[in-house]
Design a protein that fits this description.
Length: 351
């Protein structure tokens, strides 16, 4: 079977990297690698040596994991608050927002709003405020001047804020300021010598698969990303969209499954314990406790699985809405009703 030729590939424009690579269950390592390079670049610019910078960054991103893309439950500017990437580690909560065209006058306020949501999600309703917060970081990727130092030639800027030891930051990456492939080859002679962060960003700017493969050559992690991107192009997106989602390329689906199972297990266990204790008081405390735990665990698991499947269906529909698929096609693949899809398109939260 001959390989399809795609005249305009643009991985970032089609959200291919963020949907099919960073959100893929087997590509958490890819996002961790990309994020590590961003933070290392910043630490080096602050005067740390390479070894110390790596140790500092690795400590910050230890146990990195994806979360569902949504933050909070309310609307903002007539649509749900939805991040392109949302994750956490032992010491950080991280969000990524992408805006390629300068056609959103409120992108600045949207980024600030999302940063406050990253902070706010660390609080639990009805519970005391945490004694300390994780470092909250929002990464804003644009293809236009966005930082407050628009005349600067630097493509990466970190706006850091500290309040009584709590740290918050917005990192801006302006793709149009990154060097071109030809200029980097002229400077470094070989692509393998180009700093890895620049190679990552070159992927976002690539126009076709030939460029992607040239950028990735010789780097195991980037070659893995290139291999995934090779399977994704705009011509076969409709044909394979449902299949790609169903083989677990949706982070929201996976997060929903995991969170649903865990929440269901906890709630089921707690309720089962209460019911078991009450029953055990009548028929035998020990016996009732064991039965209550077992029944609560089973019900909790079942409830969690159902909730995970529901989140999967919504995540599939939301992704297809972003790609402007027809309602009937979205309904067929996501298995949601037309009314539900229409509500999602209008910004309603179905969860």
């Amino acid at each position: 079977m001959s390989e399809k030729v795609v005249k305009e590939f643009h991985p970032l424009r089609a959200n291919n990297i963020f949907i099919y690579v960073f959100f893929s269950y087997h590509s958490l390592a890819a996002f961790k690698d990309f994020f590590r390079e961003i933070l290392t670049h910043l630490e080096l610019s602050r005067g740390l040596d390479k070894e110390t910078a790596r140790r500092t960054v690795d400590s910050k991103i230890n146990n990195l994991e994806f979360l569902g893309p949504k933050i909070g439950g309310e609307k903002f500017d007539e649509k749900m608050v939805d991040l392109d990437v949302h994750c956490k580690s032992d010491h950080m909560v991280i969000g990524v927002e992408i805006q390629l065209k300068d056609n959103e006058l409120n992108f600045v306020t949207r980024c600030l709003h999302d940063l406050t949501k990253l902070i706010g999600e660390q609080f639990t309703k009805g519970q005391p405020a945490p004694k300390t917060l994780k470092e909250s970081t929002l990464i804003a990727i644009t293809n236009f001047n966005f930082s407050d130092t628009d005349t600067s030639s630097s493509f990466l800027t970190s706006h850091d804020y500290e309040f009584h030891g709590e740290v918050f930051s917005i990192i801006t990456i302006e793709l149009h300021k990154t060097p071109q492939y030809e200029d980097l080859i002229q400077e470094y002679k070989e692509i393998e010598n180009v700093p890895r962060l620049l190679r990552w960003l070159l992927l976002f700017k690539a126009d076709n698969m030939e460029e992607v493969m040239k950028i990735a050559v010789g780097d195991k992690q980037l070659e893995e990303v290139a291999g995934i991107l090779k399977q994704v192009n705009e011509e076969d997106l409709l044909e394979n969209f449902g299949k790609k989602i169903k083989i677990e390329t949706s982070a929201a689906w996976l997060s929903g499954q995991l969170n649903g199972k865990q929440e269901g297990w906890k709630e089921g266990k707690q309720e089962g314990w209460k019911e078991g204790k009450q029953e055990g008081w009548k028929e035998g405390k020990q016996e009732g406790l064991q039965e209550g735990k077992q029944e609560g665990l089973q019900e909790g698991k079942q409830e969690g699985l159902q909730e995970g499947m529901r989140k999967k269906q919504i995540a599939v529909a939301e992704a297809m809405i972003k790609e402007n698929f027809e309602l009937e096609i979205i309904a067929k693949i996501s298995e949601l009703s037309l009314d539900e899809i229409t509500a999602l398109r209008g910004g309603k939260d179905l969860k």
